[in-house]
């Protein structure tokens, strides 16, 4: 049972480059979300989705795009990477938005 | 502004003793609270939760207490084991909301 799978685990980008962080879950969860974790800040919500075809912004959405074409996948796109986006990114899924979330292992992104 | 606060960045406890991790929140609309445990290079994993209609929830060695009037919750681990050494995050949400608000985490070290 894979749960929530994130790829890649590590990534270094140059300022201005774009990339997509992949997230897939095999639990048939409707709710998926992306968080970033920064030192001294806890985890902060970037974007979330309550089902296929539906996405919305979280607390810190600027510089990121998401889409949800299937229940399983929820990719996060960095449009033009900036050093301020250096962080650890976690994808999570849950049966519903008010229930416990299952997290992926994280993607450590460095923007130079 | 941090709506969920964990004011102790670290805690060290002897094996077999009780660990008490504290969490304060400011938003009176929060009605669901969770504790997550995180090992290095892994995503957070759900530990225990409590609804605002309760003041205590117990699961094996883990007990969460909620004091709504003080806007305070705590996680008790008894007895503490070396495998409990991890970072513990407190999180909170309100019914119908789309976000889990996380604290900054407390690093627990259980000394053998």
Could you explain the architecture of this structure?
The complex is a heterodimer of chains A (112) and B (112). Chain A is built from no helices and 11 strands. Chain A has strands at residues 4-7, 10-13, 19-25, 31-38, 42-51, 54-57, 64-66, 76-78, 87-94, 102-103, 107-111. In chain A, strand 5 (42-51) and strand 6 (54-57) form a beta hairpin. The model of chain A has no long low-confidence stretch (mean pLDDT 94). Chain A is mainly β and 112 residues long. Chain B is mainly β. Chain B has strands at 4-5, 10-14, 19-25, 32-38, 45-51, 56-59, 62-67, 72-77, 86-93, 101-102, 106-111. In chain B, strands 2, 4, 5, 9, 10 and 11 form a 6-stranded mixed beta sheet that branches. A 5-stranded antiparallel beta sheet of chain B has the order 1-3-8-7-6, with no helix packed on it. Chain B is globular, with a radius of gyration of 13 Å. Chain B starts with a strand and ends with a strand. The mean pLDDT of chain B is 94. Chains A and B meet through strand 5 and strand 10 of A and strand 4, strand 5, strand 9 and strand 10 of B.
Question: What's the short story on this structure?
Answer:
The complex is a heterodimer of chains A (112) and B (112). Helices cover 0% and strands 52% of the residues of chain A.
